[in-house]
Amino acid sequence: MVLTVNIGNTRITVGGYTDGIQRFCGQICSDPLATGDEYAIRLRELLSLFGEVPEAIDGAILGSVVPMLTERLLAALRLLTPVRALTVGPGLKSGLRLRIDSPAQLGADLLCGVVAALQRAENSPVVVISADTAMTMMAANAARELVGGAILPGPQLSLSSLVQRTAQLPQIDLAAAAPASVLGKNTEACLQSGIILGTASLLDGMAARFYAELGSDVQFFATGSLSPAILHACTTPIQYCDTLISDGLYAIWQRNRKG
Prior knowledge:
Layout (H helix, E strand, L loop, with lengths): L1 E6 L3 E8 L2 E9 L6 H14 L9 E6 L2 H14 L4 E3 L9 E2 L9 H14 L4 E6 L2 E7 L4 E9 L1 H11 L21 H28 L4 E6 L3 H6 L4 E3 L3 H13 L3
Parallel strand pairs: 1-4, 4-5, 6-9, 7-10, 10-11
Antiparallel strand pairs: 1-2, 2-3, 7-8, 8-9
């Protein structure tokens, strides 16, 4: 089994793969206070939850956008398995040419998402929407060149900022269905209209610009915490895959494995 570990700002996603098939995918919280020993315990417990054991691990790869946690997770993996874990970064082959100004600044999650999207797109250009605190839209052309993207505020961040900075706006559930009309009749409905329909309109507007740059055959993929209500409100066809980054990590491991 190949173990994939994606370290994000709020959660760490762990996946297990055998012969191209995902066996499990789970998450633990990103804890800046946890030690490598504590992460080893949490990883062992997560494996146990899915009926897996560390002895089954015969390959591992880690991607991280939180440098302070990278070495702790590597230390945790060393406690669980003698297998050397690969780390996404300079020196690993991704199959992509990076046509951006500072490749070293590209987050491992964005790279992995694009790698996995291109596997699904059958030689079409792709745009990957990765949603968390921020939303990142990263594009690659049909020649497997990562050509750039855009960073936008995520809907939860926008909502939290509004609620914190105003006296009478309540929190709303972004997982609720999109309103049928943009004409909200109360405060909650107006917020739902603005955040859900507004974010969908923002994505559709950005998609139109990506179509203009990359061509009409571009395929859009999304992963992360983007609400289904927002995706359903978009007129742009967007394929959602919650394991996109883990799938990309596994694809990069396959490209770099020895033997």
